[in-house]
Amino acid sequence: MSQPRKDAPLRLDAQRNRERILRAAMVELTLCADAPLSTIARKAGVGQGTFYRNFPHREALVLEVYRYEMRQVADAAGELLSTLPPERALREWMDRLARFALTKAGLADAIRLVTSAPGGPARPGPAPVMEAAGTLLRACEDAGAVRPGVTPDDFFLAIAGLWQIDPHEDWEPRAGRLLDLVMDGLRFGAPGR
After folding, report:
1. Distance separating alpha carbons of residues 161 and 94, to the nearest angstrom
2. Nearest partner of 182 among 157, 164, 163, 149, judged by Cα
3. Which of 3, 77, 89, 181 sits CB 3.0–4.6 Å from 84 for a disulfide?
4. C-alpha 90: how far from its chain's center?
5. Within 13 Å and on the Cβ side, how many CA atoms surround 144?
6. Per residue in 118-156, pLDDT tens?
7. What one-character DSSP code corresponds to residue 168?
8. What is the Cβ-side half-sphere exposure of residue 8, based on CA atoms within 13 angstroms?
9. Is residue 62 within 8 Å of 114, Cβ to Cβ?
10. SS percent in the chain: helix, strand, coil, step 5
11. Which residues, other chains included, contact 20 with Cβ-Cβ below 8 Å and sequence gap of 6+?
């Protein structure tokens, strides 16, 4: 019997199992950075064999959860642009980014644990989220809603204060004020203002 190729698409049931594992892992790792893998498998409703076939070790699971969550945030940019004016889409996306950053403190700790170990894997880069920010900024610039020439790097430097907010406190009002200030700065000098 031949083994499936590594790049072969997963069967539908295998894809569902993988997604259930990722969703359960996201919840459990957010609550506790070193959540037992057996707990994650049980919460996902899969056996140990299925779990380890998908994620042979903790590092693989944690990094895939991080990539999965980043992809969800990045994909929201296109969805928002399809239903809202660019400026409102950008502001709503900023709120989603803040929720991702501040409600996933345990996940951030889990990522630090696996990537800081000697010989451990490198932390995945923020490329999908950077691209999403670029898409939103270009749409806003084209609509005359933000000042010209703002890059994704500029944007992330401007919102860096999000990562200074204590996620264990009532962070939403403070994050909202910070993001409103950033939007005011992005609008300053916009041709449509």
Report:
1. 13
2. 157
3. 89
4. 16
5. 3
6. 777 777 667 899 999 999 999 999 999 999 999 999 999
7. T
8. 9
9. yes
10. 70, 0, 30
11. 44, 45, 46
φ/ψ bin of 36: left (φ > 0), alpha (ψ from -120 to 50), beta (otherwise):
beta
Phi-psi region of 138 (alpha: psi -120 to 50; beta: other; left: phi over 0): alpha
Higher per-residue pLDDT: 129 or 5: 129
14: tokens are 């295998």
Q: How many CA atoms lie within 13 A of 63 on its CB side?
A: 16
- Confirm if 146 and 190 have CB atoms less than 8 A apart: yes
Per-residue tokens: 158 = 């401007």
Q: Using one digit for the tens of pLDDT, what is the confidence trace for 40-89?
A: 999 999 999 999 999 998 888 988 888 888 888 999 999 999 999 999 99
Rg, Å, the chain Cα set:
19
Q: Where residue 2 falls among pLDDT bands split at 50, 70, 90?
A: very low
Which segment of 23-27, 110-114, 182-186 scores lowest on mean pLDDT? 110-114
Q: CA–CA separation, 78 vs 64, rounded Å?
A: 22
Q: What is the DSSP letter of 193?
A: -
